[in-house]
Every structure is written in structure tokens, then in C-alpha cells.
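2 proteins. here.
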Amino acid sequence: MEFFVISLLNGVSYGLLLFMLSSGLTLIFSMMGVLNFAHAAFYMVGAYVAYALGLKIGFFPALFLAPLVVGVLGALVERYGLRTVHRYGHVAELLFTFGLAYLIEELVKVVWGLAAVPYRVPEILEGPLFTLYSTSFPKLRGFMMLVALLMLLSVFLMLTRTRIGLVIQAALTHPETAQALGHNVPRVFMLVFGGGTALAGLAGVIGGVAFITEPSMAASLGPIVFVVAVVGGMGSLVGAFLASLLIGIVQTFAIAVDWSLGGMLAVIGIVVNEQTPLYSLWKLQLSQVAPVLPYLLLVLMLIFRPKGLLGTRAD
């Protein structure tokens, strides 16, 4: 029971971090049809900016300011970069964001170096939040979950209860009509792109202090974000939320167990030994293949349900 509860909480906290990151990518795609390959790079920028600001003003002010800085950077990228190449089609947009990801990574290396920076947990978030039997659940994990849920609530209320949310939805479904009513649709696109990158920056503030802040953090987490977006359904925030929790929980439980196919077959009386064909495959433990599971889920989803869990488009 202890293992199940702690693993479930760890999986949910990791899944909520994935949602913080993937929600911005999903929002940008649903609004603009742009698959932003540089999204994880903005996540990395959020972590580094928060680290730099935290040295001067502390962690919690940086928690609010770093996403704003990343959001402004994203808005400038859309206005002076992405909008220029938009006329040449989606391939040009993909290539632009792909190159931008590498450019940001190299700039980070120039400014902060190749080694990881000492982005530390603030004292108030150190220690256990509670202890279940003999296992402690960290305060930082609880804080990560709280921030993700508050972000989810804020985005939902903004899109459904505010005027700007109604304008965004109108521009999404009927851009010409919204333009005719006097709304500046290109500006809405710029704000959406900036808002999506700000969400990535917020995830970077939390993820950077929870894990490690170094130049390869975008490359290590970026592919998982696209898995979440595809499994949840391109353009669906609710789908991204469900897929994030699913992948976070599955991967966390897989890492924590030492089951193998050979061991499970032994339970029903089938013995696997060195003479068994593909013996090395049968002896692989689930924890060893855990990093592959999200991509296996991605392949299965593309085969059997290309539009994802709750997506409305499969392109």
C-alpha cells in the first residue's frame, strides 16, 4: 500500500509537470496550427532565467517574473520571426522552430556554460510534506502539483470566463469574422504564442529546481512533450492533461518495479532459461524499458487512434 500510494503521488506530480510544459504547446497548436519544436527550449530558458533572478530577488519572485520574461521572448519570436516565415507554409515554420531550438541551446551554453548550475530548492520547500509509514513525500513535489493545478484552473477560467478568452476562441474557429469585428487577429496570435511559451517557462522554473538545470534539459524532456501532445490529441488541453497523468504514472510505476516477462511466465509454470530463444529479451526488467514506454504508447496511438484521446484533428 505504501509503495502504491507514494508511486502514484510521484507519478501524478511528474505528470502535472509534463502538463505544465505540454499545455503551452497544445495551446499554440490549437490556435495557430504551429508545431513548435523550440517549445522545450523555452522550458530551459525559464529554468535558467529563474536561476539568475533567484540569485538576486529570491525563488518566489522569480517564479512570477521568469515566465513573464519567457513569454515576452516568445511573443517577440512570433512577431519578428515566425510571422515572417508563416507565408511559406508549415514546413518553413517547423524548420524555423527546429533551428531556433538549437540556437537557444547554444546561447544558453555561451551565457551559463556547459555544466549544470546550482539551482537549489528554497529552504521553505525543503523536507517532507508528510510521511507515509517509512517513506516521505517531499514538499517540493506537493508544491509542483499545486502550481500545476492552479495553472490549469487559471487557463480554463481565462479561456471560458473572460473576454480575451472568447476572442481567442473566436479567432481560433472564425479568424475572418473576428477580424471583421475589429479584433486584431495577428496580435491575438502573438499573445497566444507568448502565453504558450510563458507556460513552458513556468514549467522550467519548477522543473529546473526539482530536477537539474543544464543545457541538455530541453533535449531530454522535449520528446516526451510531443508524446503527450500526440497521445492526448493535438489541440486538446483536456487530452494533454489526461495523457500527461497517464504517461507520468505509467513511467513512474515502471521505473519502480523489477518485473520481467520471464518472471511473469514463471508464475504460470513456464520456465525461461538460457536455452530459450531471445533469452535476453525475456529477462529484461520493466524498469529497464521504462524510458521506452511513452514512445511505445505513441506508436500504438498513431496506429489505432491517430487523432489521440480527445483530439479532433490528426494532422
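next one coming up
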Amino acid sequence: MSTLINAASFLILVGLGVVALGIQVMALSDCLRTPTSDFQRVYKRTKLFWGALTGASAFFGFIFLIGPVTSSLAYGMLIPPGIGFNLLLNLAAVTAASVYLADVRPALAEVRGRGKGNQNRGSSW
């Protein structure tokens, strides 16, 4: 019974960690592709600030996943991630990436001409 609970908690926490890492990497890649001048035009923080924040976010998301996965492979049994400081750190990291995606990215999209009022413009190609 204990093995079943360990396997279930491992799958749930690692699955949520993979989703969080996807959000963090998406925020980082969008931030790195955006020109510095766009950040200045929307009066948000600098590209360096958001790049560092989303980069640290992706790093902590990777750290959250790499520990349980490698230890499970090394020991041959599923060892779920600890529900402690590492989980709290990853929660803060995915929150920072989500703030970028929910607040900064839409403002940048309006500056680039892909915002809410420009759906009927056609293709940018």
C-alpha cells in the first residue's frame, strides 16, 4: 500500500512539475525573443529584469524535477519530490513566470501589433 501511495504522489508531483516547467520555459523564451525597446514602450520593467526573473524561474523548475527523477532512476524505486522548501520555491517561480505571461506579454503583444484590437489585420507575413 505504501508503494502505491509513493507512486501516486510521485506521478502527481512530477506531472505538476512538468506543467510548471513548461510555463516557466515558455515565459523565458518569450522574454528572450522580445526586443528591449518593446519593454520600454509599454513602461514595464526592463528586459534584463524579466529575463533574470524568468530565467531563475526556469532554473528552479528544473531543479524541482531533476532531484526526484534522478534519485528514482538511481535507486530503482519512485521517490516523490519533497513537500517542503523546494516545492515552495517552485511555486514562487511558476507564479513569477505566470505574472510575466498574464501581465507583461499581452502588453508587449499590443505594442508589436498583435494585441486585442488588431485581430482583423490579417497575417503579419
